[in-house]
Amino acid sequence: MAMRLPRPHRDDVRIAVGGLLGGLLLWGLGLFPRRPDDALVLWSGNWNALVPLVVTAACELLRRTRPRPALLIGTAALTVDTITRGNVATVVMFTDLVYAAVLYGTPASARRIPWITGLLTVAGAVVPAALWRVPGALLIGVGVGVVALAPAATGWVVRNHRDIAVAERLRAEQTALLAEMDRAQAVAAERARMARELHDMVANHLSAIAIHSTAALSIGDPNTSTDALTVIRENSVEGLAEMRRLIGILRDGSGDREPSAAPTLDGLGSLVAGARTNGLDITLTTEHGKVPAPVELAAYRIVQESLTNALKHAPEGRVTVTLTQRGGRLAIAVTSPYGGPSGPRAPGSGAGLVGMRERADLLGGSFEAGPEPSPDSGNVKNGKAGKDGKGGAIWAVRATLPLVQGEPE
To answer: Which burial class, exposed, middle or buried, applies to 62 when counting CB atoms under 10 A from its CB (0-12, 13-18, 19+)?
Structure first.
């Protein structure tokens, strides 16, 4: 099957047609660069000059799609043109073929053609001058330089600028893509942080509200209902304050007031007192020095979420909260009775453990949660306590947070 030539670019068609018409006009007017009796003219008929003109114009159709064959054929046509009366349009189109071969050709051709034309220019100046010993022979080299070296050098410069522009555009696109990826990751990280904050701040208060409102509805004792409603009101007010703090953070201090400070470990006493009001029997033990703010917030939220889970899931019994600073780490342990009721006393989203683990991971710490043998009992069977929910097993939440970022666990 014969190879099908690619369709020429429309600009190349315009160049070929323009060059051919210009050459025919010069031929029709009798404007030839050489006289019939010139020593170089071996093919002196006027019609003979049209052959290289037509061939070179045809090569212009391939200047972009097949630049190397076009240049080789054009070189042969120019050689033939030198032994006829010649045509200026043929020479002009040949210079364009040299330029196109460097600009649109392969990288190897783009490197070699300027060197070859440069050597031809030097040889065209030195060899005739050495043979004929006439200073005017140097003009042959000048002519070769104008016809071959100048367009090759121009094509090399333009190609370099084009390649640089393409590389800069690709670099800009890659930078924009990386910026978009960073922005998406930042948005996702911020959304996750907001979700953790919202869950940890509100879940504790809403869980208490749900439990005590259930008690108020199921028990007919007016005194018990009054106590439950009091707890409900306290948790509602505290939850509303936490929501206002989160809204202040989201507004980023754009209003007249700065958002309130994030909770610290000094607030664990108030947190435990509120949990006791909600019905938990808690023992708090803290032993730590100065702790960085991110670690304080993470530790506070881990304890808060652990107490929320104990309020929703744990049967009656002692809940212990222990914070201990050892070297460059803060150890957190929250234990509560495990087993008892078949279901939680308040609905949950299931995101509490995920949020606590994420907080520890973000600081380079460790986190684990699960049933353990109670210190007052033997081995746990199937991770469950006895029927009374006491003395069989405990649910332990343990986290270790490094006080210095990047410190190994």
So the answer is: buried
68-80 pLDDT per residue, tens: 999 999 999 999 9
Q: Can you tell me the distance from the alpha carbon of 29 to that of 10, in angstroms, rounded to the nearest whole number?
A: 29
DSSP track, 115-142: HHHHHHHHHHHHHHHHHH--GGGHHHHH
Find out whether 103 and 155 touch, Cβ atoms under 8 Å: yes
pTM of the full structure: 0.52
Strand, helix or coil at 325?
Answer: strand
Q: Tell me the two tokens of residue 313.
A: 């899931």
- Integer Cα distance of 393 and 381 in angstroms: 9
d(CA 107, CA 68): 12
Q: How far is it, in rounded angstroms, from Cα 151 to Cα 75? A: 14
Residues 283, 320 contacting (CB under 8 angstroms): yes
CA 111 to chain CA mean position, Å: 36
Return the CA Rg of the chain. 44
Residue with tokens 């509602």: 236
The number of angstroms, rounded, from the C-alpha of 265 to the middle of its chain's C-alpha atoms is 37
For residues 152 and 113, is the Cβ–Cβ distance under 8 A? yes
Residue type, 218: S
Q: What are 184-198's pLDDT values in tens digits?
A: 888 777 777 776 666
DSSP letters of 49-85? GHHHHHHHHHHHTTTTTSHHHHHHHHHHHHHHHTTSS
> Kindly report the CA angle at 350 between 346 and 351, in degrees rounded to 5?
125
Question: Cα(277)–Cα(334) distance, rounded to whole angstroms?
Answer: 18
Give the neighbor-by-neighbor strand order of the sheet with 329-337: 281-287, 318-326, 329-337, 393-402, 366-373
The domain made up of 265-409 has a fold known as: Heat Shock Protein 90 (3.30.565)
**Cα dist. 362→140, 358, 405 in Å?**
76, 6, 10
Task: Name residue 375's amino acid.
Answer: P
Q: What residue ranges of the chain are covered by domains with CATH 3.30.565.10?
A: 265-409
**Distance from C-alpha of 390 to C-alpha of 290, rounded to nearest angstrom:** 37
Q: Each residue of 23-55: pLDDT tens digit?
A: 999 999 988 888 887 777 787 778 888 999 999
CA dist 82 and 49 (Å) reads: 9
pLDDT (0 to 100) of residue 227: 65
